[in-house]
Amino acid sequence: MLYYNFKYEWLLLIRNRWIQLLTILLLLLFGFAVYNGIQKVDARKQNITTAISEFKAKETETLKVLDSIAKGFKVNKSRWLIPSRPIVIGNLLPRVVNMPAKPTAFIATGQSDLFAHYVKPTVAGDDLSMNYTEMTSPIQLLFGSFDLAFVIIYLLPLLIIAFSFNVLASERESGTLKLLASQPILIRTWVLQKLALRFFWLLVCISITLVVVFIIFSFNLMENWTAFATLLAYIIVYTLFWFVLAFATNIWIHSSAKNAIALIGFWVFFVLLSPSILNQMSNSVYPMPSRTLMLNQMRTLKAEATKKQDEILDNYLRDHPEYAINDSTQTRNFYHRYMATQNLVKEELRPVVEKFETQIDNQQQWAHTFSWLSPALTIQNALNNLAGTSEKDYQAFRYQSLEFAQEWRDFFIPYLFKNEKFKKSDYKNLPSFEYKYMQNTSNLRILGLLALSFVIVLLVFVLKRIKQQIHSTTS
Prior knowledge:
- The protein is built from 16 helices and two strands.
- The chain has helices at about 1-15, 20-70, 85-90, 140-145, 150-165, 170-175, 175-180, 185-215, 225-250, 255-285, 290-305, 310-320, 335-370, 375-385, 390-415, 445-475, and strands at about 95-100, 120.
- It has a two-stranded antiparallel sheet.
C-alpha cells in the first residue's frame, strides 16, 4: 500500500504543479533572504575593516614618531600629543576590539542590528559609557529583517499549511473516502503516509534550493558542511513539527475550511503570540532596575569624587605602594587624579551595575528555559546561535571587551604613576584582543522539539483508538 501511495502522491503533486510551484517559490524566498543577509554581513565587515584601516594608519604614523624620538630627533607635535607619553598611546591609539562575523552570519540577523560590532577602549574611558548599541530604524526593529531565519520560521509553516491542510478532508468532500475505507489500511495510517511523502518531497525541494542558492552566493559548502548540515537538521525538525500538527488536524477535524483555520490558529499562537507572551512574562518576573537612576547615581558619584580628588589619590597610592616608590610620582597631574577617581567610582557602582546585569541575565535565562513552549522561539535561538548573532554572543562580546579594557588600562597605569616614557620597544608588548564565540547549546532543545512531534503522533493514534473503542462499546 505504501508503494501505491508513493506513486500516486507523486503523480498527484506533479499534475497539480505543487512540486514545481514550491521549488520556484522556495528558490525566490531563499535567494532573496540569503542576498539580504549577505548584504548586512558585508556592511558589518566593511565597518570593522574601515575602523581597522584607520587604526593601522595612525599606528604607522605613531611608530614613525616613536622611532624619531628614539633616535633623538625633534618631532613637530604638541607636547600633549607626543606618543612617548603613555597616556597618548592609551587614549589616542586604542585597539579595535571587534566581533568578526561567522561564515554563517547571513542566516539570521538576530541581535546584529541592535548592537555594535566593535569598540575602542581607552585608558581614560568609562566602562559604563562604552557604546554597545547603535541607532536603527524603528520600522526595521518592528518588523525584523527578511533573512533566512525569517523565511524558515514565519513563511515555511504557511507553505506547509497550504501543502497539507486538506489531505483527508478533500477525500471526504469529494466522496472518495468510502473507497479508501474499503482498503485494508487504517485511515490515520493512510493520512500519515501521505503527509510523510509530502514531508519528504518538501525536504527534497528545500535541500536542492538551499544548495543552489548557497552555491550562487559563493558559500563554501565543503569548508562549512557541518554548519550546512546543522541548518538542514533544524529545518527538518521544524518542518516535521508542522506536518505533525497538520496530521493531528486532518484526523480530528473533518472540514477543509476548519482545518485551515485551526492550522492558521496554531501558526498565530506558536509563531506570533507565544514568543511575545514569554517576553512579557520574563519582564514581569524579572523587572529591570531603572537605567536612568543608575546613570544619575553614576553622575552624582563622579561629581562628589571630583571634589576630593587629592584625598582619593592619596588613598589610592597608599593601597598601591608600588606606584609611590619613585619620587617623581609626587608630581601629581590630572591623569593621576582622574585614574584614581575612576577606580573609586567603578568600585562604588559595581553593586548597581551587577544588579542591572543580573536582571538581564535572569530574563534571558528565563526565556531560554521556557522556550520549548514556542517551537518558533526554539528554532530562532538555534539559528541565532548557528549564525553567531544571539544575545549570548553579544553578551560574551561585551564581557570580553570589558576584560580587555581593564587589561588595557592595567598595562598603562604603571607607566602613568611612575612617570615612565613609552618607547618603541614597548609597543610590541601592548595587549591584543581576539573574540571567542560561544558554544552552540541549542541541540538539546531541538531534540526536545523532535520528541514533542513524535509524542503528538503517538497521542493521535492512542486517542483515536480509545475513541473508536468507546464508540463500538456504546453502539
